[in-house]
Structure formats: structure tokens, C-alpha cells
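Progress report, Aim 2. The chain analyzed during this reporting quarter is listed below.
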Amino acid sequence: MVAAHSEPAPAPSAASQSTFFRQSGWMMIATVTSGAFMFFVHFFSKKIPEAEYGILGTLLAILNCMAIPGLGLQMVFAQQAASTITDEQHRQLTGTTRAVWLGTTLLWLLMAGAVVIWHQDLLVRLQIANPAALWMTVLVALGLLWMPIFNGLMQGRQNFLWLGWAAIVHGAGRLAGVAVIVLLFGGWAAGILTGALVGVGAIICVAMWHTREVWLGPAAAFEWRGWLARVVPLTLGFGACQFFFSADPIFVQSHFDKEQTGFYVAVGTLSRALVMFTAPLAAVMFPKIVRSAAQKEKSDVLGMTVLATVVLVGLGALGLSVIAPWLIRLVFKSSFVEIAAPLMPWFAWSMVPLAVANVLVNNLLARSNFRVVPWLVVLAVAYGVTLHFVAAAENRSFERVIRTIGAFNLLVLAVAAMFTWAPKFFRAGKRE
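Predicted C-alpha cells for the chain:
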């Protein structure tokens, strides 16, 4: 192998840095605002039994897993839209949008059919008393499969103004729907999920309107072979990260006392906000790296994104660790404090490596460096198996589950860092 040599990095462009921080700042404002709306939804946990809140957290985790097929879609559409320059590429983008829109609908019909067939087993296994909550989850899943198509188009076209507003509409719609259903009609988990359906419907309407020139324009034939070659590794890569982010409540709800799972879900909800809070940085970074790679330009955006993520998520974890008892008492019932507060520092810091790994994985996949994907998938499978045995063990505890989460998140970060900063033959998969 020829010895690798380094070249001096170009001086950062003041204009590009200004644009990056302006767009990142707006996306963080939009995400924080949307997240605040969604966070306020959890105040309604005081209006429902503790067991129902545990069921709600589990169904939200199932939604996140059902949305995994759509995760790669947003990145592929962002990637394709960001690299679209010619008229022919625009027609290909339109044809792809229409075909994938139809395909996701058919995929949802298959998943809905599976739920119809096995709904009784799911209700028993997950200790769900009201079947309406399960059916509402299925309806929300359709919106979550459509949403990344149109969000990806806006992201790739760097329409961050309306991408941010769409996120705000999503959160506001969810909060308004939940408030009406829970306060006026006495809904529990099923009612809160109905509010989620309102929010998802709102964001889809906004995103479709601002991308209408794409999906209503003249279309070229859908090149499905080349498209699948891109979407499958992206789906697996981002899907693995999503699994690390959200799968644990499903295992907890399946094996722990349903009267206790609400406490665990409360801590997880607050801690996972750290990853969601820093996600806009990676969202802004992704199309910029795609564009710079397509134009064979060097960019310093990865370093800025990693540094900002480390600082923000570290301060957030420290803050949650300090104010845990007060915050839990503010948002949830006072009965949550005794069990949930001691878990908060463990859970919050376990999310820190995942937030940083999310940035590195976004960078790798934006550059089509898919060699990291098998590693992530293997880790995700091992994570699921380990969580099952930890949650099912006779000496199971919430602390052991959280320590398992933290250990695997560190492994994800280590793998992502290896493929990002290791010698070139790790990144490119070839000798130079």
C-alpha cells in the first residue's frame, strides 16, 4: 500500500460557515420549538394512569421501528435532490418520488395486514387494554412512511426555512390534538396517539405543498435497480441507529410489571430528547456533504458539526442529571420521582455517544461510504438479543437495561469513529 500523505486543509470560508450556522441555528430553533410542543404532550401523563403511560411509550417505540423503512428514504431523497442539476435529473427525481410514494403505501398495507392477523398476540404481549391504541398506531405509521419522502426533498433542496416550519406545525398539531382529545373526551394512550396522527397529517400537508413542483412535474422512468442500491444501505444504516435510539421500551414493556414501566418510559423520554435536540445539526450537514462530494470540493462542515454536537449534548446530559427530580415532578405525577429520578443520570449520559455517532454515520452515508453498514446491523442484532435476555432475566432491573444501552451506544460510536478517522483503506474499502 502506498503511504498515505496529508494535504493542508483549505482555509474555512467565512460565507459557508455563516450559512451553515444560520441554517443550523434556524433548524435548532424549529426543532426545539417542535420538541417543546411534543414535550408538553407528556404533561398529559398526569391525566392518565401510570400503566397507560407505559403503554404509550411502548407504542411510540413501535412507531419508530415501523418507520425504519422510511429512514433511508429521507436520506436518499435528500441526496438525490441535493445532487440534481440538469433537467433530466429533475425528471428522474419526479419519477422516483411518485414510484416510491406508491411503494411505501403498499408496504404499509402489508404491515397493517400483519397487525390484523396477529393483533391479539400483540395486545397480550404488550399488555395493551384498549385495542384502539394499536389501530391508531398503525394509522400514524402510514404518515411516518410518507413523511420522509417530502421532508427529504426539502432537505436536499436546502429549503431549511420550510423544513423547520413543517417541524413546528408537526409539534403544534400534535399538542393541539392531544389537548382536545384528552381534556375534552378523556382519551388515554389511544387519544394521545390520535393527536400524533393530527400532527403527522399537518407536517405532510406542509411538506407536500412546498415540494409540489417536484412530484407534479414531468417524470422520467423510475430506475429502481440503481435506486435500491442506494436506499437499502441507507435504510439499514439509519435503521440500525433508529433501533438503538428507540427499541428498549418494547423489551421493557414485554418483561417488566406494566405498573412500573411508565417510570422507565418517563426517564427515556427526557433523555432521548438529547439526541433529537442535536439531530438538526446532522440534518443540515447531510446535503452539504452530498453537494461537496458531488462537486469534489473539500468541506469543514463535519468538524463544526461534531464539535457543536459534543458541546450541546454534554451540557444537556449534565443539566438533566442535576435537575432530574424537579423536572420529573414538573412533567409527570409525583409518584414518578422516587423510581425515575435516580435513573436519569445513567440514561442521559448513555445517549451522549449515540448523538455523536449519529453525526458520524450521517457523514459516512452522505459520502456513500457504506462499509460501515454491516457493522451497524450486526451491532443492532446483538443489541436486540442482549436487551431481550437482560429484560427477561430473573434479576432484571431498569439499571441493567440502561447500562446495556450505554455500552452498545459506545460501541456504535467507536465503529462510526473508526470508519470516519481510521486510515483510508478502512473508509474507502481499497488500497491506495
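Residues 1-12, 427-432 have pLDDT under 50 and may be disordered. The CA atoms of residues 156 and 247 lie 28 Å apart. These observations will guide the mutagenesis work planned for the next reporting period.
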